[in-house]
Design a protein that fits this description.
InterPro entries: 2C_sensor_his_kinase, HAMP_dom, HATPase_C_sf, HATPase_dom, His_kinase_dom, Nitrate/nitrite_sensing. The protein is built from 20 helices and eight strands. By secondary structure, it is mostly helical. A hairpin with a 5-residue loop joins strand 4 and strand 5.
Length: 724
């Protein structure tokens, strides 16, 4: 039913919101329709209680009354038949089944059937265009990586053919940076290519990512071995070939026909660029060496043939504007000069002559490299232009599809609003009492009931604590639930009162037993003191001392019971007591005090009203440290100062320590004393320390170290006084 309360806060910012709203609305509502109380009776053969019946505590009724419904309240008579007939048409008295059917059937049937399919279809189309745009962005990254890697290949071939001179090595190493940057950009964008983009595209992307580390290996081979020019071309070209395959895959896997021609043109230009770049590197190597090495001439001629073939493919699939742009870009003096040099080199190679491009120049390789770069860079510029066109077009298509999806969602929303107008009157009669019931129930659970329980604990008397009923006065299921919740509220207060009385009785029992035991222990201590004064035998005197310590521990155990019962210390000092005396008093209450080493600050005293509690607290911590550390080890009690003016007392042992979980649980109990229960009896000392610390604003924390445990006691400045 909670979902029904959200109809007034419906958000339509997302095209799927209408569908999600109806799902959230329908599922809880149909579950409510199946609840037994809808039909007016509790489920089960033995339930025997009508919905809306006032249920009194079992302890206040006889067995015969348990299954007998109460008569109608005089303030709310069922009325005559005429009044019943009038109530039948009042929305506030309709059954929940009737309201939910009237509220859900029309919106669900009209809005989901009419709007959901159209919204989903439009949004899926927008998602397809988004994938197209991602592919185009990755294609641009591939183009950049191909360009930089091809340039590195040509520089590497030139470096190898020129004899690996330092002059050729420097530009090669400089090119490593742009290649690495382009590869990193590709890795970032390739992370978005998931199997949703097509299994073949995803597999090829993973393959290319796995081949990228080969770039560094190829560099090491070129720089650190005697690899020849042609194998160098081959190694780089193997990586570039995978990039070309990626362009082919993008072309084949285009999601929309509008982009198929541009993607095919981009793929053809990518292959033409690779062939042109390979020619640049091969002829530069031949010019540097003076001739083509074995296999290089055939490779050079094949690269030229591939370039011309791919340019032909490009012209076949490109638009007239793209063909004109290619003609305007891949042209100029450098392109013409490169063609002249190429033809001259081929003629010299055919005659078996030395490759001498410009007889009057000594830098033939650089001259060719500069001239051929005009054509190579022109093709690369075309690649980038077409890639940008693909990206812009795919973005435009995606935005158009998304706008269509939003329009479809808006259309569905209009249908929904039309239906909501029909159901608004009935929904209002249901939502208002539900909200009131929910608000008051939460207020009772979060504020009124805890406050009532607190008052019961303080005064222990339930008289006068009558909870007001929830302000829902309808006679439908909501009103019945409100009356049932009122009964639960009254029963909770009654049980809380009984628990408070029981707790008070237990505390009183603790106090009485502790007082009686304290009296006997105090008498026992007095007798032991008398025996100690008149005893001359050292062995007996030592035994009396041990007995005295045991009696002192028994007295402290009785004081623990008083702390559990919430009683203050019976003994108080009117004047501050020196810190050393406080620690000595704590040592006198533990067994094995001779193992304790005290390193205390001088000139500090503890407020008289807190002395006994601080002594008690320290005794518990010191006794715990002695009990859980080897007999031959020492326990150190030391002090330090805080910037806030307080004092730090540490009890450090070399015992068995605690696990991290145990330490966190113990510190949680020390920070906030838990309610007294059976578990407290197993760790009474921890509870007592928490109670005593809470009483005076003292903080206690346990910390673990390699050799044991450290208990840190932070005394606030309000408990400290100077001591002469």
């Amino acid at each position: 039913m909670t979902s029904l309360l959200c109809w007034g806060r419906f958000d339509v910012s997302h095209p799927f919101q209408a569908v999600r709203w109806f799902v959230r609305l329908a599922l809880p509502a149909w579950r409510v329709l199946k609840l037994p109380f809808i039909s007016g009776y509790a489920s089960g053969a033995d339930a025997g209680v009508y919905v809306g019946q006032r249920v009194e505590p079992v302890s206040n009724r006889s067995p015969a009354d348990v299954h007998r419904p109460h008569p109608p309240s005089p303030s709310r008579p069922h009325g005559r038949n005429g009044e019943k007939g009038r109530r039948k048409f009042r929305f506030r008295d309709w059954r929940v089944r009737s309201r939910l059917i009237a509220l859900i059937v029309i919106p669900t049937g009209v809005s989901i059937v009419v709007g959901a399919q159209q919204v989903i279809t439009s949004w899926n189309l927008a998602s397809q265009y988004q994938r197209v745009m991602d592919k185009s962005e990755l294609s641009a990254s591939v183009t950049e990586l191909t360009h930089q890697l091809a340039l590195e290949r040509d520089l590497a071939v030139h470096y190898v053919a020129a004899g690996r001179t330092p002059e050729r090595e420097e530009p090669l190493r400089t090119q490593f940076g742009p290649v690495d940057a382009a590869a990193e950009d590709f890795r970032d964008k390739a992370a978005a290519i998931t199997p949703a983009y097509g299994e073949s595209a995803s597999a090829l992307t993973r393959q290319l990512l796995s081949r990228l580390p080969e770039i560094a290996a190829t560099r090491n081979t070129v720089l650190g071995s005697e690899l020849l020019a042609l194998p160098t071309v081959t190694k780089y070209s193997q990586i570039i070939a995978v990039l070309a395959q990626f362009h082919d895959q993008i072309g084949k896997g285009g999601d929309q026909e509008e982009l198929a021609g541009d993607v095919a043109a981009l793929s053809a230009l990518s292959k033409a660029y690779d062939a042109a770049s390979e020619q640049r590197g091969l002829l530069a190597a031949a010019a540097a060496a003076g001739r083509f090495q074995s296999g290089e001439l055939d490779r050079f001629i094949a690269a030229r043939a591939r370039q011309e073939s791919e340019v032909t493919v490009f012209r076949a699939v490109a638009t007239p504007e793209q063909r004109q742009l290619y003609d305007d870009t891949v042209t100029g003096t450098l392109v013409d000069r490169a063609e002249v040099i190429r033809l001259r080199a081929l003629a010299q190679a055919a005659e078996g002559d030395r490759i001498d491009i410009e007889p009057e120049r000594q830098d033939d390789a650089d001259h060719w490299f500069e001239a051929s770069s005009g054509s190579v860079n022109g093709i690369w510029t075309m690649q980038r232009r077409i890639g940008e066109e693909i990206n812009v077009q795919s973005r435009t298509l995606k935005d158009a599809a998304r706008q269509e999806a939003l329009l479809a969602a808006a259309y569905s929303l209009l249908l929904l609003l039309a239906v909501l107008i029909i159901t608004a009157i009935m929904a209002r009669s249901l939502v208002s009492p539900l909200r009131r019931l929910r608000t008051e129930a939460l207020h009772i659970a979060g504020a009124r009931l805890p406050e009532t329980v607190r008052l019961l604990r303080e005064r222990g008397d339930q008289a006068g604590l009558v909870p007001p009923p929830i302000g829902v006065d309808s006679r439908d299921e909501i009103g019945e639930v409100a009356r049932a919740f009122d009964e639960v509220h009254r029963e909770a207060i009654r049980l809380a009162g009984e628990e408070s009385r029981l707790r008070a009785n237990v505390n009183a029992m603790f106090v009485n037993l502790s007082r009686r035991s304290q009296t006997m222990v105090q008498r026992q201590i007095q007798i032991i003191d008398g025996l100690e004064q008149g005893e001359q035998d050292e062995r007996r005197l030592a035994g009396l001392f041990s007995l005295d310590h045991l009696a002192t521990r028994m007295r402290r155990n009785n004081e623990n019971l008083l702390v559990l019962a919430g009683q203050d210390a019976p003994r108080r000092y009117n004047e501050p007591v020196g810190l050393a005396d406080v620690v000595r008093a704590a040592l006198s209450e533990v067994e094995g005090y001779e193992r304790v080493v005290a390193k205390l600050a001088e000139g500090v005293a503890v407020s008289g009203q807190a002395v006994n509690d601080i002594v008690h607290l320290l005794a518990e911590l010191i006794e715990n440290a002695l009990a859980f550390s080897p007999y031959e080890t020492r326990v150190t009690v030391a002090t330090g100062t805080m910037e806030s003016g307080g004092l730090v007392l540490t009890v450090d042992d070399t015992g068995i320590g605690m696990t991290q979980d145990e330490l966190e649980q113990a510190n949680a109990r020390l920070a906030r004393a838990p309610t007294v229960d059976v578990s407290v009896s197993r760790r009474m000392g921890l509870f007592v320390v928490a109670r005593l610390a809470q009483r005076h604003g003292v903080r206690v924390e346990l910390r673990s170290h390699k050799a044991g445990l450290t208990a840190i006691v932070l005394l606030p400045g309000s408990l400290l006084h100077p001591h002469l």
